Amino acid sequence: MISILLEEAIVHHNELPMPAILYGALAMIGFLALGAVTWSYRDVSNRNMRRSNQQAGH
């Protein structure tokens, strides 16, 4: 009975496939890429001439 409890007490730790700081760096790169895509769509509504003329007085 004691040997079963001792075997259960052993904890096996799995190592990460890369250093922990790289997870944050990859997340930052991903969010910057998504931000660049979002930023590239600024002023898209003003490219439509019909809409721009209708909204010119506003």
Low-pLDDT runs: none
Beta-strand content estimate: under 5%
How far do the termini sit from each other? 82 Å
Please outline the major beta sheet: none
Number of helices: 3
The succession of helices and strands, N to C, reads: HHH
Mean pLDDT: 81
Structural class: mainly alpha
Number of strands: 0
Shape: rod-shaped
Percent helix among the residues? Answer: 55-70%
Integer-rounded radius of gyration: 27 Å
List keywords for this structure.
single chain; 60% helix; 3 helices; 58 residues; rod-shaped; mainly alpha
Quick description:
The chain is mainly alpha-helical and 58 residues long. The chain has helices at 2-9, 20-40, 49-54.
What does the model show?
The protein has 58 residues and is an all-alpha fold. It has helices at 2-9, 20-40, 49-54. The termini are far apart. The mean pLDDT is 81.
Write the layout of secondary structure elements.
Blueprint: H1 2-9, H2 20-40, H3 49-54
